[in-house]
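Sequence, structure tokens quoted for completeness.
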Amino acid sequence: MALWHTEVAGSRRLAVGPPHQGPERFLDPGLTLADLLGPTGPALADIAGMRGTDAVGEGTRTVAPADAQPVWAAGVTFERSREARKEEAVTGDFYDRVYDADRPELFLKALPGQARGPGEPIGIRADSTWDVPEPELAVVADHAGRIVGYVLGDDVSSRSIEGENPLYLPQAKVYEGSCALGPCIVPVAEAPDLDVIEMRLTINRDATLLYKDSVRISQMRRRPEDLVDWLFRALRFPAGVVLLTGTSIVPEPEITLKAGDRVSVTSDGLGSLDNTVEVVGR
């Protein structure tokens, strides 16, 4: 059973349902994800036993499964990511150093309310020439830094901007529509084991497959719990936090997103996150 964040008649409601089937029944109207991740409310692990108020009906839209939580991200956690960022950069030796270092690369990806949900558009910058999706496993941590759930994420990025100068990373990574989450949060106890989770990416253009690839989370150099531990060392998240854990899927330089492309991130047991691309900014 998974946790879904929905919108119906202009109001946001939490619901439960299987990851690959969608939300089936609403939870209490006043319950929020911040309650489930905070110090005083029920726990995310308890959702399967919660009594729903009514069935989810027509007119219900699925939105990003986050409310008061910021989205952070980790970089260079896979060997392929290190090599790709060295290839795009003018000087790439610092990517070797961060890959091998004890301290990981962590950066803020999206403020609360900014992540796009299933079916919503993801953005590519108008002033960028090379744009890629980065399918990632995101972990959901509660107020105490405990990983309590998993969700699919897309860390949309401008490789041309970051490649020009690594100090441009915030502009390459953080802008309108650069982060997508969904379709739902799967509690750890309900999710596949980390070592068997496989992330899959497809990009379709004009109803034709443009690109596909996959990666197993077991190939990650760092463990998600270590990344969360670093994130919580000097920050508090009383309403919880979502952390994207990095990618190893890097399209070739000739592959760049265009408006209208359809991007799908899927994983068995976690569902499918589907978004269409739009151009943002000037």
About this structure: Residues 2-63 form one domain.
